[in-house]
């Protein structure tokens, strides 16, 4: 979003970006609630301890950073003027920060930094899934798309 040059419709595109962020935050919270109610199948018995720990840490990091990126974006929205509270023209999302140009810049910088951290975590996750599927040939990837335990 930072590479959009200054032009008349820049606010529109940033507003859509914010709306998508609000949706992602809501879906992530719902997913965490779902996981709390419906735990994931156990990893295959032959999975080493370090891989089990790495899986739990990476999943926790993914959820944490998704929420962090969305919350920093939301904080940025409330700190800038005008804010991005208009949700697809349907209603205004309450803002939890007050207009403050310096704070808006700080939130935006952190939002961008953690967005790149999130991209790195996603890349590691995809590489690990591909490794499990094509190199180890275990059932780890299959359990992501079915209820099948390995």
Secondary structure topology:
Layout: H1 10-37, H2 49-79, E1 86-87, E2 91-92, H3 101-136, H4 140-145
Antiparallel strand pairs: 1-2
Helix pairs in contact: 1-2, 2-3
InterPro entries: Cyt_b561_bac/Ni-Hgenase, Cytochrome_b561_oxidase, Di-haem_cyt_TM
Cofactor: heme b
Domain Cytochrome b561 bacterial/Ni-hydrogenase: 10-146
Structural shape: elongated
**Main sheet: strand order:** 1-2
Poorly predicted regions: none
Q: What is the gyration radius calculated from CA atoms?
A: 19 Å
When the domains are counted, the total is 1
Class by alpha and beta content: mainly alpha
Return the average pLDDT rounded to an integer.
92
Q: Helix fraction?
A: 55-70%
Q: Give the terminus-to-terminus CA distance.
A: 41 Å
Number of strands: 2
Task: Report the total helices.
Answer: 4
**Could you describe the largest sheet, including whether it forms a barrel?**
2 strands, antiparallel
SSE sequence, one letter per element: HHEEHH
Beta content comes to under 5%
Subcellular location: Cell membrane
Membrane topology: Multi-pass membrane protein
Transmembrane segments: 12-33, 53-75, 113-134
Keywords: Cell membrane, Electron transport, Heme, Iron, Membrane, Metal-binding, Transmembrane, Transmembrane helix, Transport
